[in-house]
Amino acid sequence: NRFDKSRPTVMYDAVCSNCGKDCKVPFRPTGEKPVLCRDCFRQSGAGQDRRPDNRNFSRPNFPQNRPQNVPQNNDYKAQLDALTVKVDKILEILNAATKAQVEEEVKEVLEPKTETIEKSPKKKRKSTKKSE
Fold first, then answer.
1. Of all helices (H) and strands (E), which one includes residue 108?
2. Which of 9, 36, 93, 97 qualifies as a FRET site for 20, CA 20 to 30 Å off?
3. What pLDDT, in 10s, does the model give residues 19-51?
4. Cα(7)–Cα(26) distance, rounded to whole angstroms?
5. Around Cβ 86, how many Cβ atoms within 10 Å?
6. What is the mean pLDDT of the chain?
7. CA-CA distances (angstroms) from residue 15 to 8, 20, 28, 71?
8. Is 35 in contact with 26 (CB distance < 8 Å)?
9. Contacts of 41 (CB under 8 A, 6+ apart)
10. HSE-CB of 83 using CA atoms within 13 angstroms
11. At CA 38, angle to CA 6 and CA 46, rounded to 5?
12. Per 3-state DSSP, what percentage of the chain is helix, strand, and coil (rounded to 5)?
């Protein structure tokens, strides 16, 4: 990565195309483009920051496209309290349903169904003795 600051930058010997001074540049000159020394580079304006100085980092002001039923005020405490009441009601309903289901299942386990099992009558065995 060319922006990695952990490695030292390799500098190459070159001759400034503008003033003819010997200089060092952080890239290998190929001769395809002119090479400028540090002073000529600054004078040309090429070394200036490409970003505008008047950058604004504040949040953009987007139009408010809120649904009509959402309160426009910033009374977050009241909104949070109202939401908490609703969530508590929902949890209460869910817990009640769960308790009823658990109680029913426990009752089924603890109170086994009494079933009448009909026993088949015993068959009399035939005697294997031979009559003489």
1. helix 76-110
2. 9
3. 999 999 988 999 898 999 988 988 887 656 666
4. 13
5. 10
6. 76
7. 22, 6, 12, 69
8. no
9. 47
10. 7
11. 95
12. 30, 5, 60
For residue 113 the two structure tokens come to: 């169904």
Amino acid at site 36:
L
Residue whose tokens read 């009448």: 116
0.85 exceeded by pTM: no
CA–CA dist 74, 64 (Å, integer): 14
pLDDT of 116 higher than 60: no
Question: Kindly report the CA angle at 6 between 5 and 8, in degrees rounded to 5?
Answer: 80
The residue to which tokens 């308790």 are assigned: 99
Dihedral angle sign, alpha carbons of residues 8, 14, 17, 18 = positive
